[in-house]
Amino acid sequence: MASSLTKDSADRGTPGDERTFFGHPRGLATLFMTEMWERFSYYGMKALLPLYLVAPNGLDLGAAATITITAVYGSMVYLLTLPGGWIADRFLGPRRTVAVAGVVIMLGHLTLALPSAGVFYLGLALVAIGSGLLKANISTMVGHLYDGPNDPRRDGGFTVFYIGINAGAFAAPLAIGTVGERVNWHLGFGMAAVGMALGLAQFLLGSRHLSERSDIVPTPMPAAEKSAVLRKALLWLAVPVVFYGVVGLSGHYTVNWAVIPVTLIGLIVPIWVIARIKRDRDLDTAEQSKMSAFVWFFVAAAIFWMIYDQGASTLAVFASESADNSVLGWEFPVSWYQSLNPLMIMAAAPVFAWLWVWLNRRGKEPSTIVKFSAALLLIGASFFLFLAPLAIAGDGEKAAALWIAGIYFVQTLGELTLSPVGLSVTTKMAPVKYASQMMGVWFLAVSAGDSVTALLSNEAVGGVNLDRAGFVAVEATLAALAGVALYLYRNKVKRLMGDVH
């Protein structure tokens, strides 16, 4: 029996495995490669999306519609992480959910590769659904490879895993972006499908090295409850099908009939979820207090992501129309700008990690609240910087590529100050009852921020020109004021956090 268990441990990549991946369980190599290729497909498509939407030989939409659609898509990816986690918890387990997600993402990219505008939005929906399913579960499976939270290899394992994310994100615009812009848009989307296919193949072939815990459905749903849930799901699905069928047959359908409701869902659901947790009477006084503190961080993050995610929409559209995208006379594809952030992340993340430790040893590490405040000031500064190339373009000249690169650099500094810290503080402040759900709640800040962007830019709702100096200055000022306000109220938030530091 002991011999059998040892062999199973070695095959599954659990702790104690003698064959390792840079000193980590072999299953980490499977998840590393799967996530790298999935991010390759996701960021490649994301780099092409706004450019294809606005291009005369693409869908030829205006800047406002392009920014709206890109923001709605981003909002849905993060909103769908909640049902993605629920499906794994109640129906399939993480491993099977990720396998299904890979298939759905690949089909979505294949649909985008079809030279037909009629199925384009279906392809976007499939990629968003698949990404939500995968994002909610693959990080969980990385954690399953280790012997609990105190395994000394655990933090290093996640670091290696995130290198895979950024490696895929860096390479994608260079490869997929070049083909999409210089050869054919749909061939570029097809390359994204190939990337996901490689990731799915890697996952299926290497799944035997994953932990057995990844196969377990944590809280399986009884048969009777499954039937009831299925009936309710079909009923709720029938409502929009009938409604949009009537609207379509009557000849009144436009894309806003779908975009506006989805955008409102992306804004309302985060508010509803947090309010539901906050009102839960099962939470004790300390947990209620921490949830009140979490609201401050959530709002700050929503403001941050509202501006940050415009790097892939507003800033990308500006670069395609008004920037001199060349270095020393050599012109590069606009999509290449999207490789700057992952490159900067890989270069700067170790520096930030060292800096926090160095300051901590001297008792000078900024608190979480101060870090969030700094992140808001940095994201505001990035849009104040954006005013310079906007002014240059307003005079009829092309803005230099270095202006665009500078904006991404400042935004990356803000991301490193807020994103890892936000993930950490979320796990620390999560009520026991919602411990497994709070990470999904944290991602809803992205949905909320992107939904605000979509509503503002939508010509049928806000009608705001987000790529104009006036509103860019308003957004920059809002972020700066939010950062100052958070800093001024830091003592109040600290008291609400209780024993969390």
Automatic annotation (TrEMBL):
Bilayer disposition of the protein: Multi-pass membrane protein
Segments passing through the bilayer: 61-85, 97-114, 120-138, 159-179, 185-205, 233-251, 257-275, 295-319, 339-360, 372-394, 400-418, 439-457, 469-489
Annotated Basic and acidic residues bias: 8-21
Keywords linked to the UniProt accession: Cell membrane, Membrane, Transmembrane, Transmembrane helix, Transport
Span list, region Disordered: 1-21
PANTHER family per the UniProt record, alphabetical: PROTON-DEPENDENT OLIGOPEPTIDE FAMILY TRANSPORT PROTEIN, RESISTANCE PROTEIN MDTM, PUTATIVE-RELATED-RELATED
NCBIfam families: yjdL_sub1_fam
Protein name in UniProt: Oligopeptide:H+ symporter
Species of provenance: Streptomyces neyagawaensis
